[in-house]
Amino acid sequence: MAANVSAVEDPIVKQLQEYTTCDVSDALVKLKIHNGGFLPGITMWSPQRQDGPTKIVGPVYTVQYAPLDDERPKWPNHYIDSVPAGAVVFVTSNPVTSNALYGGLMSTRAKACGAVGSVIDGRFRDLQEQKDLTYPVFARDVGTTPPGPLFKVVAVNEPVKVCNDAQDIVIHPGDYLIGDVNGVVVLPKGLAEQALPLMAKQVEADSKMAVAIQNGMTFAEASKKFRS
Predict the structure, then answer these.
(1) Measured by CB atoms within 10 angstroms of the end CB, which terminus of the chain is less buried, N or C?
(2) 182 and 204 inside one domain
(3) What pLDDT sits at residue 166?
């Protein structure tokens, strides 16, 4: 992708719209990313709770929270005012906290900026407000307490590490985040062009398998015929 192509014009985003998070993970497994880029424990909360056709696809815009005593200075401006159009906002903290990292006003501004959704590696709040905005939010859970008493933003649009379920995933700015009812997957930018043809091939094979199985073929037979 050329450097001057915006997120809303990105042809890879357009192609990814055709695939589910499961399709993306299948392709990444074939590329030896054994966790398939899956971010465990993060599910859809808005505009519906684990229901509906909501899908978000876009380059990631990362936000890192850390404790107030972290040696890094607090980010001088509010990160939400710099969200690029077409981006997916990704907010995380190290260490984890029971305080909510994100709220309704953040989504109000993100939506106004043209963001396609937000993924919170932690808790968020103002659930009804999020739903009323019909703005996509994926998160680990809900909460009520803001981050300010304990945490501060220390980095924006820099690589962040997600550590959970015995796996470490580093998310870089510009990597693609895909979210749907199945969960959230990160597709490294450098693998996108290799992964897309694998997705197309897998979806075609699985569609043929489904028809064959419905017509009486066993799964093993169909797999051998269409996936080999």
Answers:
(1) C
(2) no
(3) 66
